[in-house]
Amino acid sequence: MRRLGDVMDIVALKRQGLSERQIAMRLGMSRKTVHKYLEDPEAIERGRRPVERESKLDPYEGNLRAWLKEDPEYKATWIYDHLRPLGYTGGYDLVKLKVHELKEESQRIAYMRFETEPGCQAQVDFGEFQVAREDGTVGKYYLFSMILGYSRKIYGELIERCDLPTFLDCHIRAFTTFGGVPGEILYDRMRNVYIGRVAGKSKFNATVQGFAVHYGFKPRVAPAYAAWVKGKVERPFSFIREGFWRGYGFTCLETANRDLTEWLTMKDERVHGTTREVVRVRFERELPFLKPTPLRPFDTSYRVYRKVHKDCTVRFEGNSFVVPHTLVGKAVVLRVKDKSMRVFTDNRLVVTYTIPDGRGHLVQEKRFYEALRKDMAMNARKYHHARPAKGRAKLTKSPERPLYDMDVQIRPLSIYDHAVGASI
């Protein structure tokens, strides 16, 4: 097969006025070859047409496909052993190459590029980062990342734990940084976000649903084992890990987040490899399509439901907290965040406590027990002052009824005296 350089030489010599015979003699090739490439110089790029030859394995290709469809893990040796009784007379290498070709064909996956409209979608995910401390131990931090699908602008924040209040607080700070809220947010199947499918629909955590309603976006979940669906937020993790984190001198979480924010702001001036536009310029076009954030932020604290005991307390994490005695027997809501606990009933704030370290503490405000002591009706119910004791008879007399109810006639004493004189 001739090379492209040979064809270029043939064409150049022809332009110099040489005949086909002279060109063939100078280049050491046949006149037919010279004539062929002078007539069609592009034939060198097409190359030779492959010659289709019948293979000894062709009659058994249907068997191979059926076996591999039944179980893709079948080995070429197993297939070769089962082809021999069917009359196959070829070699094992031919079977091995064909099995490899069919397996590659069945495992080949094609993806469709997915782009979103401005302000339509953001993607959220977590990544784990480790820090080597001076004492030799290894600390663990988590990177919360939210990326806008259209502009590829990234918000990133390192956090110490992945609980739900921290997760939602990161959302709020991301919305503040972006200056608005996207129409929908795509999540992975996180346990604190996604519960499962109920009646054919995705079921999210109740707090996450309330948060989404408050900020006006729709939560969505990516399919299982489909990382490519969230490719926009998956790639920035390696982008941040390799560009910012590798070689970074970690001192404290606050400094690291400040440096990360500055680094991401600087990277907004880069030309994105997919969109071929500057991230900042593309974000300026997306910003008007983001929804405004509400004036009142969402309360991201935990909701814990408890029943008030007879001693006017609710239990939480091994400690007892005193509430008004009028709530005994009722259910209250504890809103817990960090070391603060607020007690609500009927959407009314009752009291706020600081959660102590350790267990077994009684945390109270004296005014609650003082109010109990002053509640006379409650004390009457407790000590039975408002009703007679059981088992005691009432000592009463009726003025119209004799003390003894007997059928006796009462006579005057003079009658008895007269009776005695007559007998004498």
From TrEMBL:
Domain HTH IS21-type: 5-68
GO-annotated molecular function: DNA binding
Cross-referenced Gene3D superfamilies: Homeodomain-like, Ribonuclease H-like superfamily/Ribonuclease H
Keywords: DNA recombination, DNA-binding, Transposition
Domain Integrase catalytic positions: 114-302
Pfam families, sorted: Mu-transpos_C_2, rve
GO biological process terms, semicolon-separated: DNA integration; DNA recombination; transposition
DNA-binding listed as a keyword: yes
UniProt record similarity statement: Belongs to the transposase IS21/IS408/IS1162 family.
NCBIfam families: transpos_IS21 (NF033546)
Protein name according to UniProt: Integrase core domain protein
Species of the source: anaerobic digester metagenome
Organism taxonomic ancestry: unclassified sequences, metagenomes, ecological metagenomes
